[in-house]
Amino acid sequence: MYEEMASKDNVEYIAGGATKKKIKVAQWMLQIPGATSYMGCIGKDKFGEEMKKNSRQAGVNVHYYEDETAPTGTCAVCVVGGERSVYLFSLYF
User: Fold this and answer.
1) Handedness of CA 4, 74, 69, 42 (dihedral sign)
2) 93 residues of the chain, pLDDT tens digit each
3) DSSP 8-class letter at 72
4) Residue 19: which of 71, 73, 67 has the closest Cα?
5) Global pTM value
6) In 3-state terms, what secondary structure has residue 10?
7) What are phi and psi of 56, to 5 degrees?
8) Which superkingdom, per the lineage (predicted)?
9) Contacts for 55-62 with beta carbons within 8 Å, 24 or more apart?
């Protein structure tokens, strides 16, 4: 189901997690590229690359440990008619 959702034209990738979202808001408020930083762990995969790209585009200075043995945690949210459903696929701790 996740690959099917990812193949749609209107998919948006948003670097998330509670802390990451707060850092992105702080970065947006400060309007100074690199004024905020975030450290974490991602898998060495396409979703990890998307996480890095999305965070850097938001101006956040990110540093990730890239684990080749585990996938990046993912979550899909399907929005239809204003209602949403959340699907957790893989979490890495």
Assistant:
1) positive
2) 677 777 877 888 887 778 888 999 999 999 998 999 999 999 999 889 999 999 999 999 999 999 999 998 888 777 778 777 766 555 444
3) P
4) 73
5) 0.76
6) coil
7) -65, -35
8) Eukaryota
9) 55/15, 55/20, 55/24, 58/15, 58/24, 58/27, 58/28, 59/27, 59/28, 59/32, 59/33, 59/34, 59/35, 60/20, 60/23, 60/24, 60/27, 60/34, 60/36, 61/34, 61/36, 61/37, 62/37, 62/38
